[in-house]
Specification:
The protein is an alpha/beta fold. The protein contains 20 helices and 16 strands. The strands form 3 sheets. An 8-stranded mixed barrel has the order 8-9-11-12-13-14-15-16, surrounded by 5 helices. The chain has a 5-stranded mixed β-sheet with strand order 2-3-1-6-7, sandwiched between helices. Strands 4-5 form a two-stranded antiparallel sheet.
Amino acid sequence: MEHEPLQDLATRRRQRAENLLIAGVTLLLFVIAMTWGWHHDLATLFSSSHPAQSAPVSAPLTKSFGPKIEAADGHETFDAILMFGLIASLGLTAFAVVQYQRLRAALRRQQEAELHSRRLAMHDQLTGLANRRNFESFAERAMFERPATEKRAVFLIDLDHFKPVNDAHGHAAGDKVLIDFASRIEGHFPGGLVARFGGDEFAAITPPLADDQDALNYARYVIAAVQASFDYKGLSLRVGASVGVAMIGDAVDTVGEALRRADIALYEAKRRGRRQIAVYESALESAVQARSWMEAELRLALQNGDIVPYFQPIVDLSTRDVIGYEALARWRHQTRGMINPADFIPVAEQTGQVQQVCETILAQSVTLARFWPAHVMLSVNLSPVQLRDKDLAQKLLAILAAHDFPAARLEVEITENALITDLMTAKTNIEALRAAGVSVALDDFGTGASTLNHLRVCQFDKIKIDQTFVQSMADSNDSIAIISAIIGLSRNFNLRCTAEGIEKASDLELLSGWGCAEGQGYLFGRPAERTAFETMVRPEDSAAASV
């Protein structure tokens, strides 16, 4: 049995009480009138109006309680009926007035509810901005009712590094960022409209523009709006913004087409490195088609086992002995051959497939590496997306345990840029991995941001000098100075140091002389499917042949 809402039940009870009160007051008035003889006064008044029908006025008011009705001549009965009718009319009038007030209040509540419903239907409940439906309606009017010479632009805006804020500080912190960001940009589009489509995705349509450059000025303001941090309970939260811009013109005949173009431009802005602005142009269409193909093919490649590890040796520069291998992801496409990691890894990161790629590479690598000599390390790269996962250490250690591979023989490489988005979660993951015996290397050292702060906050075991410095030593004294400083820094922090990109014997001699302990590059070997420690047949092939 369904129960009435408490508010409706209370209203019904109040109305019932009001009705009973009206009826009670009416009855009480009738009793009082009859008790005090008011019906005789009414009869006198009535008789004076009709002399022929007048009757003797009865005795003075009686003091007894209750009406005294004499049925003999009918005068008393008539007086009582007349008095009852009068008082009942007053009661009905009072009831009608109360009902009228109720109807007015109900109508007012209905109108308010309709206004509230319409607002909910057209606005985002969290930020108060317009929602997609409202935006599309406004944009349609702006597009098709504008003068032929009027220019406008549609923006799609995505907050960079918003997810780490939610993950690290909770959804309340994320909501605060969204609300504050909305308030910062809403008033900057007079004559236009700002909307929230959901999550951290916003849209805007500009006021009429003087020229195309004016659209970029509005977009730059959006980028500038997130430069200042967002305060949440004393914390300074930082995010960025990427903006895709689509100009409204003759070739754009629907709101959907304008949003599609803005979305293509937004993807390009993110590809350029976040906190960027990109304007739609037809050349971007081919990039979107290539990305769609890459996404679909990558999904199939993971299912079919086409993503495989290639191994590049890491060498002790003092002895020239191989002391480890770095496992690098390679994609052997069935029709296009080898696909460059620089092409598919960014797509994997954007689509969320990178974690599966990295875990696949680790699982395949440890299957082979457990047959290497015990002193040879296996090194794998971690994606920034993985580093934001609070369960990262648990997942990696589970793979090692499943393949009976010692944690002490694994080294994970982390780039500096991976630390920027959520340093504290990264620190937690690094501590958990090191506690289990896994070594942690800071990769591409010197190319990211806040390097020294990262060394202070996080405990690393190794620094890897980026290959751009190594390969420019012959032509740049600055690169030599940077390399020398990094080697000295590693020595002061008691960290191992590996130089990447060694291709010349002369560079090897210089690095070794400066005290760099380890090296990696084409001089020692290119990435290959097999290592020096494997036989002509892989371990799993040997096992299969012996069955």
